[in-house]
């Protein structure tokens, strides 16, 4: 990082020197050409250092790289915390399932019924027959009563 900042300050100095030369000599002067070569060499060296640090491109600064690293580090910490919480929730769910499976175990072996208690078909059939005959009898009494009364 220190080397990169030193090279950037050296590049700034070289650019200022070239601009000073251009103010009183032409572009084809040997000193301007040498200053241009020096600037190109420094820029190439800066790009090599940036690529070694993982910051590709001329617009990428070291602070951008450190900022993205910090953002990724925070994301990693959040992901690790979420993973830990998910593992704890899974363990709790498994323990709860194990606890509840005890209630599903049969305590008495089930058997088939010997006699059905409900519905009581014979009783229901007898009651239905009784009420139907009472209803028929009542209707017959009304019928005969009405027939005798109209004569």
Task: Kindly describe this structure.
The structure is a single chain. With 151 residues, this protein is mainly alpha-helical. Among the domains are: 2-60, no CATH class; 71-103. 77% of the residues lie in helices and 0% in strands. It is built from four helices and no strands.
Topology:
Blueprint: H1 2-24, H2 30-53, H3 62-101, H4 121-149
Helix pairs in contact: 1-2
List keywords for this structure.
151 residues, mainly alpha, 4 helices, 77% helix, rod-shaped
**Elements, N to C (H/E):** HHHH
As an assembly, this protein is single chain
Beta percentage is under 5%
- pLDDT under 50 segments (min length 5)? none
Biggest sheet record: none
Instruction: Report the C-alpha radius of gyration, rounded.
Output: 50 Å
The gross shape turns out to be: rod-shaped
Total number of beta strands: 0
The average pLDDT is: 86
Helix percentage range: over 70%
Number of helices: 4
Distance between the termini: 129 Å
Q: What structural class results from the helix and strand content?
A: mainly alpha
Write a brief structural summary.
The protein is mainly α and 151 residues long. It contains four helices and no strands. It has helices at residues 2-24, 30-53, 62-101, 121-149.
């Amino acid at each position: 990082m220190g080397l990169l900042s030193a090279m950037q300050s050296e590049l700034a100095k070289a650019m200022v020197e070239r601009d000073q030369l251009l103010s009183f000599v032409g572009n084809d002067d040997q000193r301007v050409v040498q200053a241009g070569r020096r600037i190109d060499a420094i820029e190439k060296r800066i790009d090599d250092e940036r690529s070694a640090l993982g910051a590709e491109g001329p617009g990428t600064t070291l602070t951008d790289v450190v900022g993205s690293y910090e953002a990724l580090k925070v994301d990693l910490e959040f992901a690790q915390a979420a993973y830990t919480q998910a593992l704890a929730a899974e363990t709790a769910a498994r323990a709860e399932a194990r606890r509840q499976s005890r209630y599903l175990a049969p305590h008495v072996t089930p058997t088939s019924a010997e006699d059905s208690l409900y519905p009581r078909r014979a009783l229901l059939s007898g009651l239905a027959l009784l009420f139907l005959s009472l209803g028929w009898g009542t209707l017959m009494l009304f019928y005969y009563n009405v027939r005798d009364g109209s004569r």
